[in-house]
Design goal:
There is one protein chain. With about 100 residues, the chain is α+β, with helices and mostly antiparallel strands. It has four helices and two strands, in the order ααααββ. A two-stranded antiparallel sheet has the order 1-2. Strand 1 and strand 2 form a beta hairpin. Helix 1 runs parallel beside helix 4. The two termini are about 25 Å apart.
């Protein structure tokens, strides 16, 4: 799912799945906890927050969070050693 479609609630839910505080995510991403709070309150994905949203999403995805939009938005945690992430699906792993 493109990061531009991820909303603040999904970022907050992903952080919660990992058991991280806003400060934890902020430190891992290189932003302030206040910035994380602003992005998490963004329910409509404001363009002005897009680069920060992308950084937050990338940090969460690196820890196994997958952002979903299959009819309804959501998040799930994908164990690092199990399965293939949706964005990694292609013809070479079609077995």
């Amino acid at each position: 799912m493109p990061h531009s479609m991820v909303n603040g609630r999904q970022i907050k839910a992903g952080r919660a799945l990992l058991g991280w505080s806003r400060k934890d995510l902020a430190e891992r991403t290189g932003v302030t906890a206040d910035t994380v709070k602003v992005v998490e309150q963004d329910a409509v994905t404001l363009e002005a927050l897009s680069s920060t949203r992308t950084r937050l999403c990338a940090t969460l995805e690196a820890e196994g969070i997958a952002f979903l939009n299959g009819g309804s938005m959501g998040v799930q945690i994908v164990p690092r050693d199990e399965g293939i992430r949706t964005q990694d699906l292609n013809a070479s792993n079609d077995d």
